[in-house]
């Protein structure tokens, strides 16, 4: 957990950096901008996330194919892999209690799980407003997320990028000015429950709402001379999340949740600073870190380290 | 004014196709700053069969396009490629090569496309002439406002183009 002093330093640094006369960037590593990839362009993204769960290394990787159907519509398909969950909930997940009825304290942290394919996610984004002028634009897009996950995810927080199934809707507003780019992504998640056929246990995850703020700027080059120049971009992103508590049943019978903060309603803010390298104007490498600012996510343990690589492939128009 | 617009209509309708061609164009692309965005836009422009070469100024975002000789050029397709890449066009200027044909009045036809001049044509119509295109997608919206009454008046008189594209241009 960073201290308030450290957080104030980060904000001061951001203020100084955004005061410089630098062109902005909106290729945000964590939050989608309102802009899409171009028509008939396929962007292939490979991303890796790693953290330590009480000494147990946790890895999460995904590959995402993003295709521009037109300048306004973009379709993304992601496939997730991780060692975050077992194939089933542990046998002692529900404990009998003759006085208060069956209860759970959640799943113990730091356990080993095999690395497996998790689920997939389909995202459709529609950019419905674009106001462009020299070195600036204001754009607004809406998106729909559909996730087919049914993982043994024993945290209340829904996550359509791997952990849980369900649907999400959101709105993105992105402003690119000559000096900086800023984007706000607000949305909600309606998760589908985890249903374990073998045991009859059902976990209904909390509904979630989030507001993410992203800012970015170009550090290098100050003046462009060719596509071959290495671009270095810096980003500051904040993930603000709030969600309801989980409701658990065992063959229809309600299960009491005892001393399990991961299964209770929660809110948190996380800061994700990133450095991005654009190579030959066509490939990007993002290095990033996730640190809590207020509260925490129980889906993982900070600090979280991210590495993302993306390459664009241009297809010829069929016309 | 009415007589002028009628003459425009007649010229646009009966003018003979000129054996002329666009040589090059300069597109001011707006809504972007980064070289990755410029790269995507250049790749999009290069897909057109009539585009020979594209030189992109990465600081001003002006694309200088050279056209292939002998292949009909569509300025509409050229502009659309910028929008397909996710950006907008702030200005389109194209060099049109006039040969021995004489332009009658303020309108002419090249292939299936009609061109209407919104200002007075110069006396000398030979050689390369740079035209600036007037349309909501081809220029900044606030700049188009001043030309809109003129464009609307010609469109209402002539009606929809039965084939090709109708362009409004300035010398």
What features would you describe in this structure?
Chain A has about 325 residues and is mainly beta. Chain A has one helix at about 5-20, and strands spanning about 40-55, 55-70, 75-80, 105, 115-135, 135-150, 165-175, 180-190, 195, 200-205, 210-220, 230-245, 245-250, 255, 265-280, 285-295, 305-315. Chain A has one domain (about 5-315): Porin, CATH 2.40.160.40. Chain A is built from one helix and 17 strands. Chain A has a twelve-stranded antiparallel barrel. In chain A, strand 2 and strand 3 form a beta hairpin. The model of chain A is unreliable at about 15-25 (pLDDT under 50). With about 170 residues, chain B is of the alpha+beta class. Chain B has a single domain, classed as Alpha-Beta Plaits. Helices cover about 30% and strands about 35% of the residues of chain B. Chain B is built from five helices and eight strands; from the N terminus they run αβαββαββββααβ. Chain B has helices at about 1-15, 35-45, 75-85, 140-145, 150-160, and strands spanning about 20-30, 50-55, 60-65, 90-100, 105-110, 115, 125-135, 165-170. An eight-stranded mixed β-sheet of chain B has the order 2-3-1-4-7-8-6-5, with helices on both faces. Chain B is globular. Chain B starts with a helix and ends with a strand. The interface of A and B includes residues 133, 137 and 178 of A.
For the structure shown, list the relevant keywords.
heterodimer, A: mainly beta, Porin, 12-stranded antiparallel beta barrel, 1 helix, elongated, B: alpha+beta, Alpha-Beta Plaits, 5 helices, 8 strands
What's the architecture of chain A in CATH terms? Beta Barrel
Count of strand segments of chain A = 17
Total tally of structural domains of chain B: 1
Q: Can you list the strand order of the major beta sheet of chain B?
A: 2-3-1-4-7-8-6-5
Broad shape of chain A: elongated
Mean pLDDT across the residues of chain B is 84
Q: Judging by the overall fold, what is the CATH architecture of chain B?
A: 2-Layer Sandwich
Strand neighbour order, sheet with most strands of chain A: 1-2-3-5-6-7-8-11-12-15-16-17
């Amino acid at each position: 957990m960073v201290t308030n002093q450290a957080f104030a330093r980060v904000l001061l640094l951001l203020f100084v950096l955004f005061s410089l006369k630098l062109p902005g960037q909106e290729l945000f590593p964590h939050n989608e901008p309102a802009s899409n990839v171009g028509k008939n362009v396929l962007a292939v993204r490979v991303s890796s996330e790693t953290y330590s769960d009480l000494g147990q290394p946790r890895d999460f990787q995904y590959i995402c194919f993003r295709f521009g159907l037109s300048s306004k519509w973009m379709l993304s398909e992601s496939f997730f892999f991780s060692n975050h969950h077992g194939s089933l909930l542990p046998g002692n997940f529900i404990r009998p209690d003759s006085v208060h009825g069956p209860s759970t304290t959640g799943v113990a942290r730091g356990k080993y799980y095999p690395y497996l394919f998790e689920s997939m996610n389909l995202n459709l984004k529609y950019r419905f407003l674009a106001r462009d002028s020299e070195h600036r634009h204001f754009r607004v897009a809406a998106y729909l997320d559909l996730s087919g996950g049914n993982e043994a995810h024993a945290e209340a927080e829904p996550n359509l990028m791997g952990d849980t199934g369900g649907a999400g809707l959101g709105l993105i507003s992105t402003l690119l000015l000559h000096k900086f780019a800023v984007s706000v992504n607000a949305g909600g998640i309606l998760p589908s429950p985890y249903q374990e056929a073998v045991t009859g246990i059902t976990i209904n995850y909390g509904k979630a709402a989030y507001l993410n703020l992203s800012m970015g700027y170009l550090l290098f080059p100050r003046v462009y001379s060719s596509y071959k120049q290495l671009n270095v971009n810096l980003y500051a992103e904040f993930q603000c999340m709030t969600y309801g508590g989980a409701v658990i049943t065992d063959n229809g019978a309600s299960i009491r949740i005892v001393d399990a903060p991961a299964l209770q309603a929660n809110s948190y803010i996380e800061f994700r600073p990133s450095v991005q390298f654009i190579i030959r104007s066509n490939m990007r490498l993002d290095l990033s870190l996730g640190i809590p600012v207020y509260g925490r996510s129980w889906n993982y343990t900070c600090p979280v380290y991210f590495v993302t690589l993306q390459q664009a492939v241009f297809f010829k128009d069929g016309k | 004014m009415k007589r002028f617009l009628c003459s425009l209509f007649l010229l646009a309708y009966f003018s003979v196709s000129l054996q002329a061609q666009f040589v090059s164009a300069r597109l001011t692309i707006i809504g972007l700053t980064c070289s990755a965005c410029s790269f995507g836009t250049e790749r999009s422009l290069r897909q057109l069969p009539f585009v020979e070469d594209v030189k992109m100024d990465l600081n001003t975002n002006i694309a200088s396009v050279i056209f292939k000789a002998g292949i009909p050029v569509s300025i509409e397709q050229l502009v659309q490629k910028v929008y397909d890449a996710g950006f907008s066009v702030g200005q389109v200027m194209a060099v049109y090569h006039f040969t021995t044909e004489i332009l009658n009045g303020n309108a002419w036809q090249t292939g299936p496309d009609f061109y209407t001049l919104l200002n007075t044509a110069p006396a000398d119509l030979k050689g390369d002439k740079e035209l600036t295109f007037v349309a909501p997608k081809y220029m900044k919206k606030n700049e188009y406002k001043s030309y809109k009454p003129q464009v609307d008046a010609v469109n209402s008189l002539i009606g929809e183009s039965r084939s090709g594209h109708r362009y409004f241009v300035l010398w």
